[in-house]
Amino acid sequence: MICYNDLPKDIKINNEHNYRYFQITGQIGENDNPQLLSSELVRTLYSEIISSGIQPVFQVNSLRFTQTSDDNDEDKNFLNTLKTINEWTNVINIPSTTCDLYFDKIYNKKSIINIIITGILENHTRNNNYHIMPEQELMIVEPVLTSDSLEYLVEQEKNMFKTIIELINNKIVKRTWYVGINGLLNKLIDISSKNDIGFEIYSNKNLFPDIVTDSKKNAYAKNWNNIKNKQLIIIDKCNSQIIKNQLSDNGIISYIIGKIIIDKNIIIKDNENKLHKINSPLKEKNNTDLLSNKQILNNNKKINNIFKIETIKEPAECKKIAYKLLNNKNISSKSYKYRQLYSLTTVSDISSKPLIDAELIKINDENNIFIYTEGNSEYFKYSISKSIIISIIESARKIACSGGIPQSIIYSPDHINLLNINEIEKFENDINKVAKTLGMNVIKSESILYNINTDKRKKQPSYELVILVKGMLTENNNLLTFDYKKKGDLIYMIGETKEDISSSQYLINEYNIQNSPIPYFNIDKEAKLYKCIIELNKNKLLTSAHSVSKGGLFVSMVEASFPRKLGFDITTDCEIRTDAYLFGESQGRVMVSVSDKEEADFIDYLVSEGMYFTLLGHVTKGAFRINDQDYGDVNLAYKIYFKTR
Questions:
Q1: Cα–Cα separations (whole angstroms), residue 158 to 152, 153, 164
Q2: pLDDT digits (tens, 9 = 90+) for 274-301
Q3: Residue 372 and residue 445: Cα distance in Å, rounded?
Q4: Closest to 395 (Cα-Cα) out of 438, 358, 440, 434
Q5: What secondary structure, in 3-state letters, does 582-627 show?
Q6: I want to staple 201 with a disulfide (CB 3.0 to 4.6 A). Which of 15, 79, 258, 501 is the partner?
């Protein structure tokens, strides 16, 4: 995907110190409305960024949904969530992409939304506008509502937020926060602790009618939660009337509720002018009772004792399995992106877009950024640490396969703490070791946790860590797509295929085996693989490159066939089970296509680097053939993958 966002050309995009990363993770429960809660998530994150002097550049989404027998229900939740998120990005005019989408029964009717926004730190002069000081006033802002429909509510909230952004850009509003799910009192305490300030609040019947003493903090929370959907803003007293007038002109109600004070506490004046001090946080609504190390280790031991590949009889025929796999939501999730994000409906439409493994954000004429986040709930069940490593290497591999150079690993320390991992330092050291091996930087993002919960009965975490990998496109003409280009091109595999079907979609969906180890991976071999792909692309020796991941080699070949209605004719390795060769998800592999005139130089380079590679076969006019057997064609695969009739 290529997106555009106009930024001042004097901003040095290539300087990592200019970037700021913000991540929010939220859980949508069975009884929550996906549109409403996803709207709250985005609004909370945008408020934090906009009022911190950060200019948003792009947004990356990672979504998790429960897998049920009712496809229509899953589609409705997913599409409503994605629609709401994308509509909110239009409010601040930035590109948004959903890199990672996964359906799994472990979410138990809960959906997990992860949103990461990358922004650029603006110049110091403008950033001074966001300083908050004593005697500045605290105002609550809310839209005038004349209908109780959800669509109307979200639309009015977006209109209000646009108005606040305009006031911030005009340097009239200093800061803004979304009150959020924990209510106003918790929000004020949070702001106070993070900014070393206090608030003097003017009580009234609308906010808390029965507050008398500090012992009634729970009454505060109960009453103040009634205004959680409103926005807080900080203003200079001299601008109060100007702001009220402009808000009123846009159908927005506003009222002053207090001011900033030097004392780092919350001071409440009740209706009788009595003062009540609050200097300790209330219990937040976030319920973060997640797995401990001991639980994870016990689960790992159980998994290791369950699965061995020898227990699965090799199928005599793989064609039916292959097409059944294409129909799986975790395999065909790219079809959602094609249809919903790009509004594509035909194969010819798809070929008009640059199809690459990663996501490409075009910042301006001189700067192009690759980003990707890849996760797999199956790996997370087995090992948190190893699942994170695979997330990093898969994302980096997809950036290399797209013509980019992987540069940075971005993660949230707060999310690691949430997992109750006792050895946090060791965990972070593991990430640093991976980064060093791959030649990448490590960056910590700021984060917000929203409505996180865990179902202890399932003994599985309700969300997984999301790590973003960022890279750069050094030359525009080096963009590398994954689609086959013409009949007769040769198909090669770079990297070694292992006889491994662990945690594969094939194993899960064909045999209903939910607990198996993580597939094979080797970080040193991954680093060597990236280097080879980057150099081969630099010397224009590849016509396409596609990372082999979910669904294995067969799915990678099918996806490469769609854009130009081509096909493939390959031969598998007779020393490896056919199902493992076609559907296994062992790491460290890239399927590439090479023109016959570049083949000699291609082979010479890989031999000189000591890189393992295999000739699979060649590109056909549209037929699929494996080991001299008919496997259908591109038209049949398209109907199943895109669920058309």
A1: 10, 9, 10
A2: 666 765 444 444 443 333 444 444 455 4
A3: 15
A4: 358
A5: HHCCCCCCEEEEECHHHHHHHHHHHHHCCCCEEEEEEEECCEEEEC
A6: 258
- Assess contact for 471 and 407: CB atoms under 8 A: yes
Positive/negative CA dihedral, 419, 420, 422, 424: positive
Classify the C-alpha dihedral 76-48-119-398 as positive or negative.
Answer: negative
- Which residue is associated with the tokens 């998120």? 85
Predicted model pTM: 0.84
List the structure tokens of 13.
């995009």
Looking up tokens 């005139």, which residue turns up? 597
CA R_g for the chain: 26
pLDDT above 60 for 389? yes
29 vs 487: CA distance, rounded Å: 49
pLDDT digits (tens, 9 = 90+) for 326-385: 988 888 776 666 554 334 334 444 444 578 999 888 766 556 788 888 877 788 777 778
The span from the CA of 2 to the CA of 331, in Å, is 22
**Percent helix, strand, coil in the chain (nearest 5)?**
40, 25, 35
Alpha-carbon gap, residue 354 to 375, rounded angstroms:
23
C-beta of residue 551 within 8 angstroms of C-beta of residue 505:
yes
Report CA dihedral (514, 517, 523, 524) to the nearest 10 degrees. -140
At residue 27, the pLDDT reads 77
CB of 59 within 8 A of CB of 70?
no
Closest CA to 557 of 541, 571, 575: 571
The residues that bridge with 444 in the sheet, in sequence order, are 411
- Round to whole Å and give the CA distance between 494 and 553: 12
For the chain, the straight-line distance linking the first and the last C-alpha, in angstroms and rounded, comes to: 26
Q: Which amino acid is at 178?
A: Y
- Report how far apart, in Å, the C-alpha atoms of 184 and of each of 225, 282, 330 are: 6, 11, 39
User: For 388, how many CA atoms within 13 A lie in the half-sphere containing its CB?
Assistant: 23
Q: Are 496 and 424 in contact (CB under 8 A)?
A: no
Q: Which amino acid is at 407?
A: Q
Measured distance CA(223)–CA(519) in Å, rounded: 51
